């Protein structure tokens, strides 16, 4: 937690911010080893970044004087990530990593090799998804929450959503064995599609290419979803 991310409701009219939830308090005690008088980086959810001075810290409350919250958060990546729904633990880690890297639009997609049971996972509950996004924001000192959409059926996604998502965006389909190496250092708005642990099936690859996506590869090593996404984002932007 390189940033104490505040809900606008945490800040009182007197300019004092109070943190009461056990996770942030534990972190302040155990990782920051914070003490009254310390200056820490604060941010407001979907707002600015700044500094705050810790007034007091107890087992049930931390109180800060907010000094200023007028710095903009880091620039987002110009990408909409379409991720075939990974297994719950991988989903949690991947959401955290991609949020820390600056992704602001995520669609979780059903494909043939996504296990149907993953859609029933408690990790997909909005408050659990939000927890992972917040961890990513706190890690990267960002304040803007990504927006996560669920696309639980492939065909409707392909026919109804994809054409709009591809308007003004370069579609990039990450799939081992494609002809083109993943481009480097682009700044074009993009739509990046990453498959499930078993990969996209040939039918899906054909449809996505037909819809206007470019197939790209990262070399002959087949990477786990969370590694592939990180490598792709790092190399693309
Ligand atoms: N067994 C699958 C690979 C699944 S890896 C297969 O052989 O197709 C999970 C996802 O990570 C893939 O669908 C792809 O989107 C991405 N990925 C992993 N390694 C990659 C590579 N070397 N090139 C491009 N994409 C890769």
Automatic annotation (TrEMBL):
CC terms in the record's Gene Ontology section: cytoplasm
Keywords: Cytoplasm, Methyltransferase, rRNA processing, S-adenosyl-L-methionine, Transferase
SUPFAM superfamilies: alpha/beta knot (SSF75217)
Localization, UniProt: Cytoplasm
Listed Gene3D superfamilies: 3.40.1280.10
TM region(s), chain numbering: none
Superkingdom, taxonomy of origin: Bacteria
Documented EC number(s): 2.1.1.193
Chief localization: cytoplasm
Residues covered by the Ribosomal RNA small subunit methyltransferase E methyltransferase domain: 74-236
Catalysed reaction equations from the record: uridine(1498) in 16S rRNA + S-adenosyl-L-methionine = N(3)-methyluridine(1498) in 16S rRNA + S-adenosyl-L-homocysteine + H(+)
UniProt GO BP: rRNA base methylation
Role: Specifically methylates the N3 position of the uracil ring of uridine 1498 (m3U1498) in 16S rRNA. Acts on the fully assembled 30S ribosomal subunit.
Family the UniProt entry places it in: Belongs to the RNA methyltransferase RsmE family.
UniProt xrefs under PANTHER family: 16S RRNA (URACIL(1498)-N(3))-METHYLTRANSFERASE, RIBOSOMAL RNA SMALL SUBUNIT METHYLTRANSFERASE E
Protein name: Ribosomal RNA small subunit methyltransferase E
